[in-house]
Amino acid sequence: MTNGTNDQVSQEPAELVIGLVSVSDRASGGVYQDAGIPALEEWLRSAITTPFRVETRLIPDECATIEATLVELVDTVKCHLVLTTGGTGPARRDVTPEATLAIGTKEMPGFGEQMRQISLHFVPTAILSRQVAVIREIPDVSPPHAALVMNLPGQPKSIKETLEGLKDDAGNQVAAGIFAAVPYCIDLIGGPYIETDGAVCKAFRPKSALRNPPDNKAAATPLQ
Predict the structure, then answer these.
(1) Tens digits of per-residue pLDDT, 170-210?
(2) Which residues in 173-204 are b (16+ Cβ under 10 Å) and which e?
(3) Is the pTM of this model over 0.85?
(4) What confidence tens digit (pLDDT) does each residue in 79-102 have?
(5) What is the 3-state secondary structure (H, E, C) of the chain?
(6) 60 with 99: CB under 8 angstroms?
(7) On the CB side of 33, how many CA atoms lie within 13 Å of its CA?
(8) How far apart are CA 166 and CA 147, in angstroms?
(9) In this protein, which residues make up the domain named MoaB/Mog (predicted)?
């Protein structure tokens, strides 16, 4: 019998690749400078201690274009995580969630639910946000590949809040950020082992999934 955990580790990709997609008619048309991708990359570089490479795309609010971009980033570029920003409201041109659901093989509703819960601490209109998350699996390649694709808000402040979570003045966690669950999700779909800076966002994994679990033996050492 083979060990599933060992098999997963042996096939683990050598490089973590993250796709960042900003969806905006005006930014992609040069009307104003995009703020979404810089905000995303700045936060990721502060939070992730594992080396990673970023692929960026700035595209208009066109469903077919969004779908094609997400498919390219997962299937061709082989991203393990794809984060989009923009296009998740109720306006007619906001179609990022529809495009994301169209390319997914599994929906991950908990991410969107938590994002809205975090934003509701600030504005009641958070219930108008339609962020979704999906897994896109490509089984017919060797080794099989999969990625987590998530929609994030469009404002840099909201991006940070939803990824990192909320803390009170004493530094106690008020609402958990969604990124705490991302590394273990990537583990489960066969991606690289992601480690984070706990001061920014502490990744949560079950003890059985930790690479370097805390050593509690020292506490039980008898006195000489």
Answers:
(1) 878 888 899 999 999 999 999 999 999 999 999 999 999 99
(2) eebbbbbbbbbbbbbebbbbbbebeeebbbbe
(3) yes
(4) 999 999 999 999 999 999 999 999
(5) CCCHHHHHHHCCCCCEEEEEEEECHHHHCCCCCCCHHHHHHHHHHHHECCCEEEEEEEECCCHHHHHHHHHHHHHHCCCCEEEEECCCCCCCCCCHHHHHHHHCCEECHHHHHHHHHHHCCCCHHHHHCCCCEEEEEECCCCCCEEEEEEEECCCHHHHHHHHHEEECCCCCEEEECHHHHHHHHHHHCCCCCCCECCCCCCCCCCHHHCCCCCCCHHHHCCCC
(6) no
(7) 4
(8) 26
(9) 19-173
> Which residue bears the tokens 């509701």?
120
What is the token pair recorded at 25?
A: 């008619």
Question: Residue holding tokens 């896109």?
Answer: 136
